[in-house]
Amino acid sequence: MICFSAGAIGALANSLAVWAFGYYGVSQSMGVAIAPVLTAHFLYPRIVWGGLWGLLFALPLGSRGFTQAAVFSLFPTAFQLFVVFPYFMGKGVAGLSLGTMTPVLVLFFNWIWALVTMMSLRLAR
């Protein structure tokens, strides 16, 4: 339950970062067409999925901390780039139809998710 909650908090931070990058034109300046509107329709599924991905932090691995967060951020990144974008959103493999820097931004945003999830878990413990 703690890992799910921490993942949901991480997803909220991730979602706010995605929104802020779009709202302030950072994504567009990088040539990436990602600028979501901050609505419940945007937030709710992302927070639920972030909670589910947060269950990765329940795995009994020896490494804890920043290395673990960096490695765990690769799982939702790969899923978004190679499943969500091409099959559910029709944006091509790695979301390249949104811009060539899309994979870099997705990796960065998911690193934010993992970092905030890790920090939330540390605060909860």
Helix and strand layout, with pairings?
Layout: H1 2-23, H2 26-29, H3 40-54, H4 66-88, H5 102-124
Keywords: Membrane, Transmembrane, Transmembrane helix
Transmembrane segments: 44-62, 69-89, 101-121
Tell me what you see in this structure.
- With 125 residues, the chain is mainly α.
- Helices cover 70% and strands 0% of the residues.
- It is built from five helices and no strands.
- It has helices at 2-23, 26-29, 40-54, 66-88, 102-124.
- Helix 1 crosses helix 3 (40-54).
- The longest helix has 23 residues, at 66-88.
- It starts with a helix and ends with a helix.
Give the rounded overall mean pLDDT.
Answer: 95
- The percent of residues in helical segments reads 55-70%
Uncertain residue segments: none
Largest sheet: none
**Per the principal axes of the C-alpha atoms, what is the gross shape?**
globular
* Alpha plus pi helix count: 5
Structural class: mainly alpha
- What share of residues are in beta strands? under 5%
Give the SSE string: HHHHH
Overall number of strands: 0
Kindly, what is the distance between the CA atoms of the first and last residues, rounded to a whole number of angstroms?
13 Å
Radius of gyration: 14 Å
Question: How many structural domains are formed by the residues?
Answer: 1
Keywords: Membrane, Transmembrane, Transmembrane helix
Transmembrane segments: 44-62, 69-89, 101-121
